[in-house]
Design brief:
single chain, 80 residues, mainly alpha, 0% strand, elongated
Length: 80
């Protein structure tokens, strides 16, 4: 019973985490471009690296979604 509860929670949480990560990735890329335009190339590169890491994390989380029998596209949670 405990395992089913965990799986049910993860079916909800995993898509939420993926959506949240996409927002962070977009912010990292936005700030990277801004830093680059200000001549802070090393900083921009680090932000690009963080964005790429976030994208890689999403790929792993999508595999976890498949493992719990959910869909990364069925997420309709909104923050209040």
């Amino acid at each position: 019973m405990e395992s089913k509860t965990t799986i049910e929670k993860l079916q909800f949480l995993l898509p939420h985490w993926i959506e949240h990560n996409k927002n962070h990735e977009a912010e990292f890329r936005k700030w990277s471009a801004s830093a680059r335009s200000d001549g802070a190339e090393r900083l921009a590169g680090l932000l690009d690296q963080a964005a790429a890491s976030m994208a890689a994390t999403d790929e792993v989380l999508k595999k976890a979604v498949a493992e719990v029998g959910g869909s990364a596209h069925d997420h309709h949670h909104h923050h209040h």
